[in-house]
UniProtKB/TrEMBL annotation:
Protein name per its UniProtKB record: PQ-loop repeat-containing protein 1
Native species: Panaeolus cyanescens
Membrane disposition: Multi-pass membrane protein
Compartmental location: Membrane
Membrane-spanning residues: 29-46, 52-74, 95-118, 124-143, 155-177
GO BP annotations, alphabetical order: phospholipid translocation; retrograde transport, endosome to Golgi
Length: 231
């Protein structure tokens, strides 16, 4: 329970490094997991749930920091940063450097530390913090669901990651009910599992053929190679 979920992303990271291309994997997945698991650690301070789940959060934070670095290193040339613009307010999670992501996460930790020191004894606050953490984590598959829909393909999204999501979320849903975990864990696990099912259906409908954007990148690289050869 503690080690399995973080390991799901190891194969995804290896695939990106081998291809030197992060196309197809939504970087917003890293945002959701980092923010959710940081918040879940503060939830644990107010409501001591299973230690295995706390360890899972700590390991997931480390895994996602590494995966985020790899995604930035090998991001697509068609990404908003590469094109010189972003439609998001303050270019959220589409910043050009890894340092900016770390600065944001450090600010988040500082703010949550202050809040838990002030309101940590309030059951209402702790309960709300739990729903925020687990509710946010339950939206994890949504960015990938949207990315798949836009590309009409699951290109770049590893089948091992999908199997890990579906299998892991199925296991943890049963685990939460058997262990009588807090209500937040149960409700959010059921919602997350339903999105996993939708992505499985996308896999059968769209397949994993390269989208047009990936083909354009390959054509550009070929043209550059030919130009260098002519020189």
């Amino acid at each position: 329970m503690a080690v399995g979920p973080p390991l799901v992303y190891a194969d995804q990271a290896i695939s990106i490094v081998k291809k030197k291309d992060a196309t197809g994997f939504s970087r917003d997945v890293c945002a959701i997991l980092l923010i959710a698991n940081i918040t879940r650690c503060f939830f644990w301070i107010g409501d001591h749930f299973e230690t295995a789940l706390l360890v899972q959060s700590l390991l997931m934070i480390l895994a996602q920091l590494a995966l985020l670095y790899i995604c930035i290193l090998y991001r697509s040339r068609l990404s908003p940063e590469a094109l010189g613009g972003s439609s998001r307010p303050f270019s959220f999670w589409q910043w050009p450097t890894y340092t900016q992501y770390i600065e944001f996460l450090a600010g988040l930790i500082l703010c949550e530390t202050i809040l838990i020191l002030i309101f940590g004894r309030s059951e209402l606050f702790v309960g709300a913090l739990g729903f925020i953490a687990l509710g946010l984590e339950s939206t994890l598959p949504i960015p990938q669901l949207i990315s798949n829909y836009r590309q009409r393909s699951l290109y770049g999204f590893r089948m091992s990651t999908l199997i890990g999501w579906f299998g892991g979320d199925s296991f943890k849903t049963v685990y939460f009910f058997l262990q009588k975990s807090p209500l937040q864990f149960k409700v959010c696990a059921i919602f997350q599992l339903s999105i996993d099912v939708a992505i499985v259906l996308q896999r059968f409908i769209y397949g994993n053929a390269p989208p047009s954007s990936a083909l354009l990148d390959e054509d550009d690289e070929l043209e550059q190679a030919l130009a260098l050869a002519d020189e």
